Amino acid sequence: MKTIQEIKMKYNVPADVVKSKVALYKQNLKEATNGTNHLMLFAGDQKVEHLNNDFYAKGIPLEDNSPEHMFKIASKAKIGVFATQFGLISRYGRDYKNIPYLVKLNSKTNLVPYDAVDPYSKAWLSVGDVVAFAKESGLKIRGVGYTLYLGGANEHEMLTQAASIVHEAHKNGLLAVLWIYPKGKFVKNEHDAHLIAGAAGVGAALGADFIKLKVPYNKKGKFDAKLLREVTVAAGRSGVLCEGGEKIDAKEFLSELYEQIHSGGSRGDGTGRNIHQRPLKEAVKMANAIYAITSENASLKEALKILK
Amino acid sequence: MKTIQEIKMKYNVPADVVKSKVALYKQNLKEATNGTNHLMLFAGDQKVEHLNNDFYAKGIPLEDNSPEHMFKIASKAKIGVFATQFGLISRYGRDYKNIPYLVKLNSKTNLVPYDAVDPYSKAWLSVGDVVAFAKESGLKIRGVGYTLYLGGANEHEMLTQAASIVHEAHKNGLLAVLWIYPKGKFVKNEHDAHLIAGAAGVGAALGADFIKLKVPYNKKGKFDAKLLREVTVAAGRSGVLCEGGEKIDAKEFLSELYEQIHSGGSRGDGTGRNIHQRPLKEAVKMANAIYAITSENASLKEALKILK
Amino acid sequence: MKTIQEIKMKYNVPADVVKSKVALYKQNLKEATNGTNHLMLFAGDQKVEHLNNDFYAKGIPLEDNSPEHMFKIASKAKIGVFATQFGLISRYGRDYKNIPYLVKLNSKTNLVPYDAVDPYSKAWLSVGDVVAFAKESGLKIRGVGYTLYLGGANEHEMLTQAASIVHEAHKNGLLAVLWIYPKGKFVKNEHDAHLIAGAAGVGAALGADFIKLKVPYNKKGKFDAKLLREVTVAAGRSGVLCEGGEKIDAKEFLSELYEQIHSGGSRGDGTGRNIHQRPLKEAVKMANAIYAITSENASLKEALKILK
Amino acid sequence: MKTIQEIKMKYNVPADVVKSKVALYKQNLKEATNGTNHLMLFAGDQKVEHLNNDFYAKGIPLEDNSPEHMFKIASKAKIGVFATQFGLISRYGRDYKNIPYLVKLNSKTNLVPYDAVDPYSKAWLSVGDVVAFAKESGLKIRGVGYTLYLGGANEHEMLTQAASIVHEAHKNGLLAVLWIYPKGKFVKNEHDAHLIAGAAGVGAALGADFIKLKVPYNKKGKFDAKLLREVTVAAGRSGVLCEGGEKIDAKEFLSELYEQIHSGGSRGDGTGRNIHQRPLKEAVKMANAIYAITSENASLKEALKILK
Amino acid sequence: MKTIQEIKMKYNVPADVVKSKVALYKQNLKEATNGTNHLMLFAGDQKVEHLNNDFYAKGIPLEDNSPEHMFKIASKAKIGVFATQFGLISRYGRDYKNIPYLVKLNSKTNLVPYDAVDPYSKAWLSVGDVVAFAKESGLKIRGVGYTLYLGGANEHEMLTQAASIVHEAHKNGLLAVLWIYPKGKFVKNEHDAHLIAGAAGVGAALGADFIKLKVPYNKKGKFDAKLLREVTVAAGRSGVLCEGGEKIDAKEFLSELYEQIHSGGSRGDGTGRNIHQRPLKEAVKMANAIYAITSENASLKEALKILK
Predict the structure, then answer these.
(1) Cβ–Cβ of A124/B236 closer than 8 Å?
(2) Chain centre to alpha carbon of residue B176
(3) Do C174 and C142 contact (CB within 8 A), yes or no?
């Protein structure tokens, strides 16, 4: 296997970015990754994906119930991009112009279990809508995102949408991030490294800039950075973002993140609950610590210092 | 949690209203809400949604059987908008030019139970059709409406249509109101506050100006304004309209409405049967009383005086 | 309830008829209804709807087996419009230029029972195709027709098509007639007055000019004009056309028709088998008698005289 | 019933052939039918419909396994049109420019039984594609063909495609031939005359120039020309082509064909296997004999002489 | 049956290649086949089709886990075309400009068994996207590929896409390769020669330049070149490419390939795992040996010498 450095060096502008948009694409990539090709993605699409479960419950500060909580964090913290739905950006964007946005183009609720009906999450708007909106509003939109479920009756529709979204994004100089999750009754273990590596390969074949994936578990159900190497190499020139998942202890989270990047070869992370399920000041510190590891090449120790 | 005042102050023009339509959007919002950001929506889409059940039955005045009854009320009473289907507006509009309309873009009948076939209600016409019609006819069309069912096999199609309708409305300076109802065999309790708050969050993520929702019940099956706070905060800058539901005693109705707004943080109501299932004069008074509470900041006492 | 006269007086040009087509719309309505707003529709779409059952069987004259039989009747008799499929109009139109046509845009066969598969009948061609054809061919096309089944898995598609067809027709100055039938396993009694009134309300909400409906039966399974009043009032400004149904005794048919209009408030009829399942001369007389009652304000006695 | 002569005389240009294409339509019809309005259609779409069963089996000459066998026959024999898929015409057309072609727009394989999944055969390309191809290639394309299955869950899609294809063909001066077969679990007897007459009526309502149908059987399971009369009259001005079916004795085939036309009122035939499942020379003679009866008004005796 | 030479001689430019693109089409065909009309296709679409199974497992060199391994092989070896997904070409193309590419337009994962849900693999992008990309990027794109599954509920959609893709490719001077596999619960034996010949005929009817097919087995489950003759003749002027399948012994592979072409009449091969599941140098030699037999008319002995 290659070293992480080798993989990173290969990274460059995909051939479907048209000549007139190469400079914009490079700028979006550079600014979103602080010039490191590592992306800290603040994931804020759970208002639809998990309804109100992630925002109003025991142990979650009351302020998280308002969508504006995430905008405040994204505005005050160092982040790569804040990924959320178009409608929220539209409603809060004029007051939060400094945030770098990534428009999450599709979302579905969690009302129907994955094994009851094959999941299908369709793009709400087109890349063209986003491009026109960015121009009209002057907001800093760095890219678009799309969730793709593999393994069900609607896989073909979602693969086609994903391919088209990545290509349209590139033609317009935007980054394209894919969330890729094998789902449904034929998927036995979502944390199996070999399966996740397969999903990574699909993302590579779709030409994604970054692919948000589940993290692989070993037989004891624990994250294992060694297993992640199959995944990050299989992803080729598409960067793997590890899913943040449920809120856990901050130190443990940062430690695992450091390992993902430095031992596993991941190129970033997509973190939501571990940031926004904290009061504003604490959330900002956590975001900054994550950013430091991901996009400022900080050591774990340096990152932990930020939390204080 | 924020106070109601704080939430209201944040309200402003969404970023996807294009520059050339900002003035029109502001005018539509101001006129529809009497400058209060609180909307009294007279709901008149039941000819399809409930077939003839709401218009011809024991206890309903005979005059309600004719669609014109609603136009007469809407024409003589103070209302925010009269929401009904395009075809009815088209057939009566020339004779009722003073009514402020909201075109309800989709509707389905109640013939098929929600748990037998996953509900799907598709937009009958496009926002572009409505915009062209408004221009051609000179009618006062303030916005468009769309019902979205969460939780079934067609959720993805309806989310996509809803997102597109909100965006197209904003691009044309129109208000967008979403009716959002979780439905189907995976929804156990439609009046659960946490579930309704989830639906509110979906509406916010879709960028709706107003979201019409069921009201939350406590364990005794009664409306509880405290529970409504989770919902109205989760809705962010989208205003929550409480569903009027079946006809009840006028005083009880107005009292609950007052509580919804002043304790629960709702930003209005969508009321149909509690208005049109009365003889014309009585219906006009009831509409005026509802409007007083919603959009004229009247006290309950003042509103009750109107009924006399 | 209003008197029939009141309802009729309200009738006027729908607001979605664009200014440049108002004169054409008025002309189409006037000529199709002989200036009475009552439409005699000669229904000739059964070649598809019932395959050859209505045209070749014991008791049906052999000449009815050829599609031309209907064109001969429509050409020689007084009728409002002859409703049939585009292909037949295309093949016989050059030889029957005097007939006023209504293009029935959709049709399905009767091979699959309604309770086995939810029925779906899709428009074969667009209103734009019809408009271009009318211009190119010079044929007198007064309007378009569409059958809508309520109550099944495809209701949403058909509602959307119906709304679009009515709107496109109006934009082009054409009349729009909807055939509306609740169908499928959740419909227990197709002749229930309250259900038919619901269908009438759907037609009104779709903006139809005329709505062809089943006739309501009382508990003894007989037509009852009093029950029809709920239906015709619920239809608002859209005129109700009563379905002709299976061939019955001519006198009985005309007597029932007279009652439908004068006691029930219907605005016409859609009759096929009771006309074309007779030899040419007899069929022409029957059509003339129906036309006399519907669009010439004839008494029953006058109409019966025509048959002789 | 009319005599065959009466029916034929009525035949003329459909009203949806636009003025500028009337001459081309007449030319296509005249050349395809040798001026007789009777069409000999050499059916060569079985490579898809029956996979390799009709081309490689015991009793079939080895040369029939190559698609070129059919082109050689079509090139050397007298035929009305050679109906086959676009791809084959595209690959062999440059070498067989003298053949009059009819592009069969849809086809399906026989892998799935008709009663297991409701059949759906979708148009591969549009009439516009064919028109552009004819112009670009200079090939003699006289028309297009489409198979329509009645009686299943996809009937509505196929009816809509058929109507559109016929109309587009006429607008471009091309002939339109429909293959119409009731299929699926609700069809008990595909050779029932009344059912086939129903299919003929559907073809007439769609405006087809010719309709390829199964032949009716009597109670003993034998073709009966008298039964065919219901079918050919019900088809109106659309000509009925009888299906050739499995290869049988040449004399028997020609005798039945003669009866179909002269007693049954058919206007031609669609024959594949009875031609191409013979060595080239024999196949050419058989095609010529069929053509003689269909489009040269030959007697059976004259036709049989050609075989020698 | 014809000799291979006869079949080859017939090969020429399909009639749907427009005049202005004939030279480009000829160039693409000549360069892809080394002027022999025999195509060596290096198949690299398994990242999606088989997820990571073909790239990371016991017995596969670690370097195969990175998508770049295939690009290195394709760049250093003699090949006809390298067939892979658009996204991979987009990400690696700028660094591997010398590779002749074929864009595989559709792909699906192997998560759902073929007999559980009828397979449907939809085109990710259009031929127009590929044409614009080729022009913009300057990459050598010789053609497009599409996998077609026969025998399921989605067959009609895939046939239509396949026909459209072949036609669009030809209109733009590109080669069109179809992978055709009968699948699903009605297919008992995928290696049956008669069934594969049927699939070949479908490819011919679709106008494909090359058709990738399974190889026929005899009753003992072994490849038999004699059986292949039915297939290659049934394919007409479309060239049959034999599927490479699982990695086997190099000598055995080359020997079988030689037989396929020289006894079976195939016009090339589609090989993936038998090439890329080897270390780079070995893989390059294997590709060169395959190319020698396929497109350089080498003897088996000459080819084997290359391996050393």
Answers:
(1) no
(2) 10
(3) yes
- Residue pair E42/E272 in contact (Cβ under 8 Å)? The answer is yes
Q: Does D87 touch chain E (CB under 8 A)?
A: yes
Which residue, among C195, C194, C169, C167, has the nearest Cα to C181 in the 3D structure? C195
User: Chain D contacts of E4, Cβ < 8 Å?
Assistant: none
Q: How far is the C-alpha of B293 from the C-alpha of B295, rounded, in Å?
A: 6
Is the pLDDT at C5 greater than 70? The verdict is no
Q: What residues does each domain of chain A span?
A: 19-307
The tokens for A128 are 């063209």
Asked whether A231 and A195 are in contact (CB, 8 A), the reply is no
Among A202, A209, A226, pick the best mutation site for testing chain E contact (most E Cβ within 10 A).
Answer: A202
**pLDDT tens digit sequence for D241-289:** 999 888 899 999 999 999 999 999 999 999 999 999 999 999 999 999 9
Nearest CA in chain A to B171: A133
- For residue D104, give the amino acid letter: K
Provide the greatest CA pair distance for chain D: 52
Yes or no: say if E68 and E47 are a contact pair by the CB < 8 Å rule: no
Check E78, E212, E214, E247 and give the catalytic one.
E212
Contact criterion met (CB < 8 Å) for C124 and D202: no
CB burial of residue A252 (10 Å; 0-12, 13-18, 19+): exposed
- For residue A189, what is the DSSP state? -
Spatial neighbors of E3 by CB under 8 A, at least 6 apart, are: none
pLDDT in tens, A59-80: 999 999 999 999 999 999 999 9
Q: How far is CA A202 from the centre of its chain?
A: 16
From the list E14, E152, E202, the residue facing D47 with the nearest CB is E202
Nearest to B206 by CA among B145, B272, B288, B123: B145
Choose among B2, B16, B156: nearest Cβ to A120: B156
**∠ CA E15-E19-E21, rounded to 5°:** 100
Question: How many beta carbons lie within 10 A of that of residue B4, not counting itself?
Answer: 18
Angstrom distance (rounded) from CA D277 to CA B108: 56
Report the residue from D12, D15, D159 with minimal CB separation from C137: D15
Question: Do D15 and C129 lie within an 8 Å CB cutoff?
Answer: no
* Interface confidence (ipTM) of the complex: 0.95
How is domain E19-307 classified at the CATH fold level?
TIM Barrel (3.20.20)
A72, A104, A212, A247: the catalytic one is A212
Contact in structure between E274 and E253 (CB atoms under 8 Å): yes
Give this prediction's pTM: 0.96
Helical pair C155-171 and C193-206, crossing angle rounded to 10 deg: 50
Using the beta-carbon criterion (under 8 Å), do E236 and D48 form an inter-chain contact?
Answer: no
Contact D153 C122 (CB under 8 A): no
Token digits of residue C214 = 């089943």
In angstroms, how far apart are the furthest CA atoms of chain B?
52
| CB B187 within 8 Å of CB A111 | yes
Determine the residue among A6, A11, A156 to mutate to test chain E binding: the one whose Cβ has the most chain E Cβ atoms within 10 Å.
Answer: A156
Cβ pair A88:B194 closer than 8 A? no
**In this structure, are residues B293 and B256 in contact, taking their beta carbons and an 8 Å threshold?**
no
Within its chain, how far is the Cα of D288 from the centroid? 16
Distances (CA, A) of A177 to A78, A169, D26, E46, E86: 19, 10, 58, 22, 16
Of E162, E197, E184, nearest to D112 by C-alpha is E184
Active site residue A96: no
To test the contact with chain A by mutation, choose from E58, E124, E141, E157 the residue with the greatest count of A C-beta atoms within 10 A, namely E124
pLDDT at residue B244, rounded to an integer: 85
- What subunits make at least 3 CB pairs under 8 angstroms with C? B, D
Q: Is E82 on the interface with A (CB under 8 A)?
A: no
